[in-house]
Amino acid sequence: MTIETLVNGGAGLARHEGRVIFVPHTAVGDRVRCRIVSAKKQYAEAQLLEVLEPASKRRRPPCVVAGDCGGCQWQHLSYAEQLHWKGTLFRETLVRRCGVDPAQVHPIVASAAEWNYRSRVQLKCHVSQQGFICGFYRAKSRYVMAVDECPLIAPELNILTSKLRCLFSNTSYARQIPQIDLAIDDHKKTAVTVHYLGVEGKTLAERLLQADLNSDLVIQFGAKSRRTLIHGDGILRIQVGDPLLELAYSVGGFAQINLDQNRELVAEVLELAELQGTENVVDLYCGMGNFSLPLARRAARLVGIEDSPISIEFARKNAAVSGIANADFHCGPAETLFSARTLCDAVDLLVLDPPRSGAYEVMKSLVEHPVSKVIYVSCDPQTLARDLQPLLHNGYELISSRPFDMFPQTFHCESVTFLKYCDDSSGSNR
To answer: Which residue in the list 166, 379, 413, 422 is annotated as catalytic?
Structure first.
């Protein structure tokens, strides 16, 4: 079959006897041989067996496990082709599902780095006949693919991976380590979190401390609540805003994986907000203050809401260190605290950056109690489109939406969408 287009999820689309066939790891124009692995009435999913005639925009992936490893889907596409399809699929999703004017969807912002951009990674671990393996799950399975060097993660993290692989090979600990988390911050400080299924970790801690890792070291015994810091202060730092603010967060806490692109994301939010210093701003899912604190410097008051206690603790510390006194942070479910409207009576701007599952309950509240300006930062175009529908049907106008390539070599993209509420009775923006 010949691949006609790409679809959300990254697969190529072909047709056979009137039925749509989805084939992963293909490019538009590829002529391929594939095997059906899942058949439905209207479509089927297939496994790529052979590229008979490659498309002109196909390239040889630099990673030897590309196509098998579940971490990447688009290494076989040139970066320009990746950007084209991310922008196209994002725009088509909003046009088709929300009736958005295509002109309101702005061009995608490319990542400054196509490779080695990931500042965090979760390595899956397994003991096989080849020894202690560090890598990633094969797509749609729990089989661990051995990865000697990942081209997506920071070079310092690849060096750490190699050291850890050697450290645990042929040891009694190896079978009790299912995962190792690595992270690096804007100052090139690194952190290692070893997930350990054993009961007593004293000798494991000693082995880690004796190794030449030059990193903060954490052992996690099962749940996050059982984390033990054995070396360093357990704090990483990133920089955002203009002028730059330094934000600290806990090892294991959330920060965007593409630190350079995160600064572009924050800059876009600040530009859209157009704050004059008199506004009340609410930041939902605020984390350690990634958007909150740059916004607070330009607003009269900011309220940040987040259900992670450790993130709220760091948001408050970051505000204090930066001398920002007009930001209040509250711990609890964003949906509940925002809907109650007890934390901030008058809201001039709402910024939200929810998880991949979206924020549909918040949308219901925005319909009942409109806010004049809304900036929605999303990591999933499908949940974004679902969440925008009730707003666009109840007085909100989409001013602009722009995708950001936070994750080169994958089909995923981040986006920033700006909406204003229009009072139908007057036809003007509130």
So the answer is: 379
